[in-house]
Structure formats: structure tokens, C-alpha cells
Amino acid sequence: MLRETLEAVSKMVQANENLAVAYSGGKDSRVVLDMFAKRVERERLAVFFMYFVPGLKFIEDEMAWAEHRWNVKIRQYPHWAITTAMRNGIYCHPSEYNVPPLTVYNLYSFVLLDTNSRMVVTGAKKSDSAWRRQTIKNKKFTRVFYPLVEWNKFDVLSYLKTNGIPIPRSEKASATGVDLSSSSLLWMYHEHRDDFYRLCEYFSFAEAIVYREKFYGK
């Protein structure tokens, strides 16, 4: 599996075009960034992160660590799912925000334009979820490369260990754990209290999940 993946990566690199690598701080994105940072000149490599709420300290710490390890500069863009949450009134009043709908492909198109890149590279895998498999199968947006598409969790863990890359403590302990799910909000509240209340500045009612835990337990 690794050999086939590296062959595909080499072909992409040999195309001599600018590439935009998505980085979340999770296991998969660490593998992908490592593969491309070892093979692509820095002037052709744009690394980007999609934030759910800007300026969270534990995410900024993760970005700083990755920038130092791989000698890259990480750009940050709003996550496409923010607009869905705001328009649907998830932990906020829909009337508070007047935002147009945004899809992952809208965002990728902007990233490609902003970074003058030919392809977006992500760590998405078929084994992630049914939704992810459907997204990968969607051929409407062809400028995305999935080097780990056939990998599973154990392939990823093996690569990280072999290359001396730290494994995130858990999915909720990495940048990829920021969303409005109950588990993510509670993890942030208990582990990064200041960042949790910064999120509440955008999603005013998120603290309700904390009171539910206090009154009824997890």
C-alpha cells in the first residue's frame, strides 16, 4: 500500500505544479503533509487549515508545531461547515448572521485560486465514513488528490510510527476535533476552557451542552 501511494505522490510531484495540502492536525493530515513536505519545493507547496472558530490557542499551538516540524507556513481559511451551522441556527440565532451557503468545493476552489495551485491534496480515506466515501466518489470537482484513499487507520499509525511523527492523543485532542458535536464541545470545555468560551462568542448557546452534562451527566 505504501509503495503504491508513494508512486502516486511522485507522479503528482513530477507534474511540477503548485499544490495545496490540507492540514487539520489529525493523523491523516500529518501523514500527507510529511509525504509532500519531503518531496516538494517550498515555493510550490501551500499548506492550509480550515478553522471553525479563529484564534483558538490550542489550534494555534498545533499550527506552530507543524510549521516548525515541516518548515512550512500554514494559511488559515474559514471551514465550509461554519455557514451550515450559522444558517441552521446551531447554538445561535440564524438571524444573527447573514452568510451565504458554502460547500467544501467552494472553499477548495478559493484555496486553489488564492494559492495559485493546481490541486488540493487531502488525507481523506474511504474507510473514514460513508459520507467520506461518497465525497471521494463525487467527480464533480476533479482538482482533489486523495493519496491515502485506500488506507485504513493501521496504515496511518504505522507510517507515523515509522517516520517518528507524534500521534495525536485522540481525535478530540487535535485541531480536527473542533466542531459543534457534544463530544467536541465538552472536550474543549474540560481541556481548553478559554478556547471554549471564545467559541461561545460565535455560538452563543454552546454552553447549554455544559449545563446538560451537569444536570443529566454525559
Furnish the topology, listing elements before pairings.
Elements: H1 2-14, E1 19-22, H2 27-37, E2 45-51, H3 57-70, E3 74-78, H4 81-87, H5 104-115, E4 119-121, H6 130-137, E5 144-145, H7 153-162, H8 182-191, H9 193-200, H10 208-216
Parallel strand pairs: 1-2, 1-4, 2-3, 4-5
Helix pairs in contact: 2-7, 8-9
Q: What is the C-alpha radius of gyration, as a whole number of Å?
A: 18 Å
Distance between the ends: 40 Å
Could you say what the CATH architecture is? Answer: 3-Layer(aba) Sandwich
CATH superfamily: HUPs
Total strand segments = 5
Helix content range of the residues, please?
40-55%
Tally of separate domains: 1
How are helices and strands ordered from N to C?
HEHEHEHHEHEHHHH
Percent in strands = 5-15%
Q: Say what oligomer this is.
A: single chain
Return the average pLDDT rounded to an integer: 89
> Which segments are poorly predicted (pLDDT under 50) over 5 or more consecutive residues?
171-175
Largest sheet descriptor: 5 strands, parallel
